[in-house]
Write a structure and sequence with these properties.
2 helices, alpha+beta, single chain, two-stranded antiparallel sheet, about 110 residues
Length: about 110
C-alpha cells in the first residue's frame, strides 16, 4: 500500500488485516474511487514464491471528513466500518462510500 500512496498520506494498521488510509486534501469521490480501484487491483496481483503463488482480495470502506459538520475520528471509524461491511457483502474486490449508504433526504 505504501508503494501506491503519496509520501504525506497515512497507512495505518489498526489490527489483523484492517488498515486505515488517510489521504489529506483528497475530497473528490471520483479521485477516491480511482485510487480505491487501483489499490484493490494491486493488492490482488498474485504473490509468487518459488513454485507457489498466493492471492488475496481486498474490500474497502470510504468516508469523507467533509461530509460531517464536526468530524470526529470515532464517528468516521464507525461509518467507515459500515461502508467496509457493505463492500464485503457486495462481494470480493469492492469498495463503498459511506455517503452512498445513507438514505437521501427529500
Amino acid at each position: 500500500m505504501l508503494a501506491h500512496t503519496r509520501a504525506h498520506d497515512a497507512v495505518l494498521r489498526i489490527g489483523g488485516d484492517e488498515y486505515i488510509l488517510i489521504f489529506p486534501d483528497v475530497i473528490d469521490m471520483a479521485t477516491l474511487d480511482m485510487m480505491a480501484v487501483r489499490l484493490i487491483c494491486e493488492l490482488e496481483k498474485p504473490i509468487i514464491s518459488g513454485v507457489h503463488s498466493c492471492q488475496i482480495s481486498e474490500s474497502g470502506g470510504i468516508t469523507l471528513a467533509i461530509d460531517y459538520t464536526a468530524p470526529a475520528a470515532r464517528h468516521l471509524l464507525v461509518d467507515d466500518d459500515a461502508a467496509l461491511y457493505a463492500a464485503k457483502r457486495a462481494g470480493c474486490a469492492q469498495h463503498k462510500f459511506f455517503s452512498q449508504l445513507r438514505p437521501k433526504l427529500t
